[in-house]
Amino acid sequence: MNMTVKVGNRKIGNGEDTFIVFELGVCHEQNVELAEHFIEVAYKVGADAVKVEAFQSDELLIDRAIEHEYGTVKGVKRENYYQLCKRLELSYDDYARLKRKADELGILFFSTVHNKRSADFMESIGVCAFKTASPDIINYPLLRYLAGKGLPIFMDTGASFMGEIDRAVVILENAGAKDLIIMHNPSGYPAPPEKTDLRMMPQIKNLFNIPVGLSCHTPGFDMVIASVALEADVIEKPISRNKELESPEHIFSFLDTEAEEFVTRIRTTEISLGNNRRTVVNEKSLPRFIGRRGIYAVKDLKRGDIIREENIVLAKPWRGISVEFIDDVLGKRVRNLVKKHKPINWGDIE
Amino acid sequence: MKLGNREVKDFSTPYIIAEIGANHNGEMDLAIKMIDAAKSCGCDAVKFQSWSPDSLVAKEEYDANQQYNDSPKKHFGSLKEMVTKYYLRPEQHRELKRCCDKIGIEFCSTPFCKDEADLLEELGVNFYKIASMDVNNIDLLRYVATKRKPIILSTGMSTLAEIENALKTIESVGNHQIILLHCIAIYPPEYEDINLNNIPMLRQTFGYPIGFSDHSIGISIPLASVALGSCVIEKHFTLDKNMPGWDHEVSANSEEMRIIVEESRNIVRALGTYRRIVGKAEQEKKLKFRRSVVAGRDLEKGHILTVEDLAFKRPGSGIQPDEVHYIIGRVLKRDVSCDELLYWEYLY
Fold first, then answer.
1. What φ, ψ does residue A175 adopt, rounded to 5°?
2. Using CA atoms, how far apart are residues B143 and B196, in angstroms rounded to an integer?
3. A206-220, A279-293, B13-27, B189-203: the lowest-pLDDT one
4. How far apart are CA B203 and CA B184, in angstroms?
5. B158, B202 in Cβ contact below 8 A?
6. What's the pTM?
7. Do domains B2-271 and B280-346 have the same CATH topology?
């Protein structure tokens, strides 16, 4: 597996800039124009990619009576799962249209795929990568099929144990996958902080030596910023135009009007991480010169005077002998006259 | 975590278990001699294996006369004959436990079925060892976990998922006293297959103390594990590597075991702090080993010092080489002959 993964023209991992993904999956209100708007926003604010969900409910769900529940700003909502999926899906034509939009603007486009058909379709329209959903971490036939395609794979790991992640990685590896990014997604509607385990990200990175990312399922930007500080290589979060809609994922989305702030905060955080060691201090800089101190005479010091604490002051700015050498100066005899409020230089003392 | 009355912790003096296993060859005299020898090497515990002909091997395997390695000197007869000769009867367990108590070394053993765990419980063992082969023996793991005593779990042949499942099983009955042993279940393994880096990985992934069950030949690898913070070392033990029987060849003899015990203590002492400290001994050494500013040639009183006048030589008790820019351009108060150290008092 590669430590650095190339997705389109962008490299991910190993010190590269955080790869920022705007998730268009289920917050588009089944409105392809709105999804196009989100792609425009993503392009405008400098996100790296947009991602869609390719599920077709009729292919996935056997029991159409089952109910699902999800969090909204107004509380947990229950809804028939099939009907819910139906009202969140777009058609393959819509996805093709969104891909054209992304191409026109020049922003990367990929999709979560759920079976061979959606994988083949997404491959045919030229996605730059595949994503697998959390429940598919044990869908070994799908993992093997995707590995055979040769495109990079973003693998969600929500609700998985470390052992399950390990097993999926081994299966992908044995099926020939070279480019894998493991996405940590704290699950829940939304994910509660105490079950977020952001520390799994550096641990996963150490274990497999491949890029890791966060699929953010928590309202606000706290988890995003913390993950960047933990050196996540990818950040993905849903974009919407209304967090209060009674529909999944809106509760932990960011608004199109917050998109710029989202990107800026990630970029600021990653730049701020810097080095383990200071290498950027300018030793001659004004703050260092003004803030540090020299040793000054409080009255005229004449030849032969002994320097004592009473006749000096440690004051700003740093001129003459630096305060750090005070122990070498105290008790010394003055050789040249030092006028009141003038700094003491090495040549002034014996 | 306590094993008996000994506190066990990563990056501390490791708890050393002399694995007698089947190296007693079914002879009680030999077993007792081995306990004495392990004690005199400074080991914390001796370990036995409590399997019996019925608890471990199926009829099919006996009929096939499975051999677990290809060295002729390890086998004297059929698998059935060996197992029957080597297994420890309950009364032998009792005798060995008494012997350990008498000389003051911990007795421990690996149970391979519930009855054997019950026997060990009745003997009053302070902790249990579970073998690598039983990492996925969920029923046995859960049963032993309910004894509410520390469990040392070997992890040879196991994937991360299997280790995680084993831990979840033990934790599910409320037992969190677990030590994982990194282990490669090959006798001996190739160096390339030992992956000692798994020791910090297991620690970081699961958060339990990590030890090392060693099957390599010699002493380097278990000692290296101590540098990675291993809190337990389990090593097969023999009085004579040439003795016929299963594991003698890959075991440490008394001489090696003594080295492991002593050197592991030294390694722990030597790990020290992450923070950089110049100790007292080195500070004193610095005065001799570093250099000072000396006159590079004879210099006269009143001379203005230039770089060309100076050299840097031992000892380090004078003006330091990195202070030289403070003396360039200053005037000598006195004559200084070639190679003489300069002092601040010599300068105007």
1. -90, 5
2. 30
3. A279-293
4. 17
5. no
6. 0.90
7. no
Q: What's the rounded Cα separation, in Å, for the pair A37 and A30?
A: 13
Q: Report the residue count for chain B.
A: 348
Radius of gyration of chain B (CA): 30
B188 upstream amide cis, omega within 30 of 0: yes
Q: Residue B177: what residue type? A: Q
Instruction: Kindly list the residues from chain A whose CB atom is less than 8 angstroms away from the CB atom of residue B330.
Output: 346-347
Distance CA A322, CA B326 (A): 12
In this structure, whether the domain defined by B280-346 belongs to CATH 3.30.450.20 is answered with: no
| Residue linked to tokens 């993992």 | A143
Amino acid (one-letter) located at B271? L
H or E stretch covering B294: strand B292-295
Both tokens assigned to A107: 């922003």
Q: Domain map of chain B by residue range?
A: 2-271, 280-346
Report residue B178 as tokens: 């677990």
Amino acid at B75: H
Q: Specify whether the CB–CB gap between B248 and B241 falls below 8 A.
A: yes
B150-190 pLDDT, tens digit per residue, is 999 999 999 999 999 999 999 999 999 999 999 999 999 99
**How far apart (Å, rounded) are the C-alpha atoms in residues B75 and A91?**
69
Nearest-by-Cβ selection for B159 from A166, A335, A350? A166
Number of C-beta neighbours around residue B266 at 10 A: 11
Show the domains of chain A with their CATH numbers: 5-273 (3.20.20.70), 286-348 (3.90.1210.10)
Separation CA B241–CA B189 (nearest Å): 17
Rg (CA), chain A: 30
Q: Which of B67, B74, B108, B7 is nearest to B245 (CA)?
A: B74
Contact assessment for residue B41 and residue B239, using Cβ atoms and an 8 Å cutoff: no
Residues of chain B neighbouring A207 (CB-CB closer than 8 A)? 160, 201, 205
Instruction: Report DSSP state, residue A93.
Output: H
Strand duo A312-315 + A294-297: pairing: antiparallel
Q: Say if A206 is an interface residue toward chain B (CB within 8 Å).
A: yes
Report the candidate in A23, A16, A6, A10 with the shortest Cα–Cα distance to residue A262.
A23
Query: What three-state secondary structure class fits B278?
Result: coil
Reported as a single tens digit per residue, the pLDDT across B254-285 is: 999 999 999 999 999 999 999 999 999 999 99
Q: Which residues in chain A (110-169) have CB-CB distances under 8 A to chain B?
A: 161-164, 166-167
Instruction: Please give the CATH topology (third level) of the domain spanning B2-271.
Output: TIM Barrel (3.20.20)
Strand residue runs (E) in chain A: 5-7, 10-12, 19-23, 49-53, 67-72, 75-80, 108-112, 130-132, 153-156, 180-184, 212-215, 234-240, 254-255, 294-297, 312-315
CB atoms within 10 A of CB B95: 15
**∠ Cα A166 A170 A175 (to 5°):** 150
Q: Give the closest residue to B185 by CA, choosing from B9, B3, B19.
A: B19
Q: Chain A contact for B323, CB < 8 A?
A: no
